[in-house]
């Protein structure tokens, strides 16, 4: 799936339309509280402007209604922050394909940057509208996809825009190139033993991933609240733990298909309330008393999982082992994260809560790769192909 990259493309004097993921968190005052998504796009941005390209950046932010009237989702703060980071002015257009966008793009000089307003202010973005896409496409000579977090979608900016730029270079930025390299290589040619760690709340979110990885991995370690649905499938007692009764039969099928490859918790850290100050006890898996709920894998499970991870050569992790935001139910996730950080494996953290946990625990710089797209990395682990990537130029 290797694709032509922005570095391999002549951008001097040309206009590049780069789809980025600037879906950053904003506080009530409209200030950016975490700019990592902007930082992660910097190398691709620098690649264009340092070589004399003119750069148009397009992104979504939040879930506005699509009528352009939701000012709290404006991308204006990202232009201000990017300007600070680059040490040069970054223009901001108050629309996407209207008069202001056209004027700001026309005024671009070599090495200049403009950010267009939130793509989702236009209903054509989510609809994949060809007319909206053709207006965006007409602004540029080159298309660059640097937004892995939305690569599993067919929004206009992801698919219809490169489709409308037939005959022009359609390439990937550094971020997407790196994600493809790590995630596709992990699945297509993993170094073994290959261990997958799957946590989070719902079996339903991870069914396709588990099914796909059972054919590829040597071991799958299950944690998080979805472990209690598996426990129920084995006839265990789960108290008031979060479970999905509708998926018990499917969990039984996965247990039967997985055999020894599918490792479930052997003990559970429980609380009698969803709080760090609740009464606590550790019980054997499937022995959670009435009125209690499982909030983390137990210490024996954590030790067992850490031992398995220690011998792994490839590790993919998606989903925490427990309520990692709340001590002491972050202990299982901590021990697993430490084991991943200490291993000499190629370690890939699959975005979302797993990425947040690894970052919060201070291990982000001790793993091989932290994905920027929770949903997209999950879709790739399911074995999905991405139309938004397939349409781009081959390397």
Descriptive tags:
Rossmann fold, 2 domains, nucleotide-binding, six-stranded parallel beta sheet, Phosphoglycerate_kinase_N, transferase, alpha/beta, elongated, ADP binding, 395 residues
How would you describe what is shown here?
Its EC number is 2.7.2.3. It catalyses: (2R)-3-phosphoglycerate + ATP = (2R)-3-phospho-glyceroyl phosphate + ADP. With 395 residues, the chain is of the alpha/beta class. It folds into 2 domains: 173 residues, Rossmann fold (3-Layer(aba) Sandwich); 192 residues, Rossmann fold, CATH 3.40.50. It is built from 16 helices and 17 strands. The strands form 4 sheets. The chain has a 6-stranded parallel β-sheet, sandwiched between helices. α4 links the parallel β3 and β4.
Task: Give a short synopsis of this structure.
Pfam families: PGK. The protein has 395 residues and is an alpha/beta fold.
CATH homologous superfamily of the largest domain, by name?
Answer: Phosphoglycerate kinase, N-terminal domain
Counting DSSP H or I runs of 4 or more residues, the number of helices is 16
Give the domain tally. Answer: 2
Count of beta strands: 17
Shape: elongated
Extract low-pLDDT stretches.
none
CATH architecture of the largest domain: 3-Layer(aba) Sandwich
Spatial strand order of the main sheet: 3-4-2-1-5-6
What's the CATH topology name of the largest domain?
Rossmann fold
Layout: helices, strands, pairs:
Elements: E1 15-20, H1 36-39, H2 42-49, E2 54-58, H3 76-86, E3 91-92, H4 99-106, E4 113-115, H5 123-127, H6 130-137, E5 142-146, H7 156-164, E6 170-172, H8 174-188, E7 194-198, H9 203-214, E8 219-222, H10 226-233, E9 237-238, H11 248-258, E10 262-263, E11 267-271, E12 280-284, E13 287-288, E14 293-297, H12 299-310, E15 314-318, H13 331-342, E16 346-349, H14 352-360, E17 369-370, H15 374-381, H16 387-390
Parallel strand pairs: 1-2, 1-5, 2-4, 3-4, 5-6, 7-8, 7-15, 8-10, 9-13, 15-16, 16-17
Antiparallel strand pairs: 11-12, 11-14
């Amino acid at each position: 799936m290797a694709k032509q990259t922005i570095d391999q493309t002549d951008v001097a004097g040309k206009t590049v339309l780069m789809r980025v993921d600037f879906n950053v968190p904003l506080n009530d005052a409209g200030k950016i509280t975490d700019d990592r998504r902007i930082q992660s796009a910097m190398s691709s941005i620098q690649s264009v402007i340092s070589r004399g390209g003119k750069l148009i950046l397009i992104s979504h932010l939040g879930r506005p209604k699509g009528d352009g009237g939701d000012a709290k989702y404006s991308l204006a703060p990202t232009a201000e922050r990017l300007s600070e980071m680059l040490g040069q002015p970054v223009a901001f257009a108050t629309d996407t394909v209207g008069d202001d966008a056209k004027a700001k793009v026309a005024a671009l000089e070599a090495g200049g940057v403009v950010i267009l307003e939130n793509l989702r202010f236009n209903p054509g973005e989510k609809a994949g509208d060809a007319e909206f896409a053709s207006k965006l496409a007409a602004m540029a000579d080159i298309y660059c996809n640097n937004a892995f977090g939305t690569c599993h979608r067919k929004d206009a900016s992801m698919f219809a825009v490169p489709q409308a730029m037939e005959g022009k270079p359609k390439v990937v930025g550094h971020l997407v190139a790196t994600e493809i390299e790590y995630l596709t290589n992990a699945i297509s040619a993993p170094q073994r033993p290959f261990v997958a760690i799957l946590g989070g709340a719902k079996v339903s979110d991870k069914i396709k991933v588990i099914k796909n990885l059972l054919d590829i991995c040597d071991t799958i370690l299950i944690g998080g609240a979805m472990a209690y649905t598996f426990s129920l499938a084995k006839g265990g007692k789960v108290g008031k733990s979060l479970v999905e009764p509708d998926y018990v039969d499917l969990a039984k099928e996965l247990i039967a298909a997985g055999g020894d490859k599918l490792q479930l918790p052997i003990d559970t850290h429980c609380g009698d309330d969803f709080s760090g100050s609740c009464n606590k006890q550790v019980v054997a898996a499937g022995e959670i008393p009435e009125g209690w709920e499982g909030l983390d894998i137990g210490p024996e499970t954590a030790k067992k999982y850490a031992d398995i991870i220690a011998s792994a050569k490839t590790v993919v992790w998606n989903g925490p082992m427990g309520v990692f935001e709340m001590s002491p139910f972050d202990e299982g996730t901590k021990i697993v994260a430490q084991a991943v950080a200490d291993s000499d494996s190629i370690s890939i953290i699959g975005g979302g809560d797993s990425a947040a946990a690894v970052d919060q625990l201070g291990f982000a710089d001790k793993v091989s790769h932290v994905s920027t797209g929770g949903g997209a990395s999950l879709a790739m682990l399911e074995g999905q192909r991405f139309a938004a990537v397939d349409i781009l130029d081959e390397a």
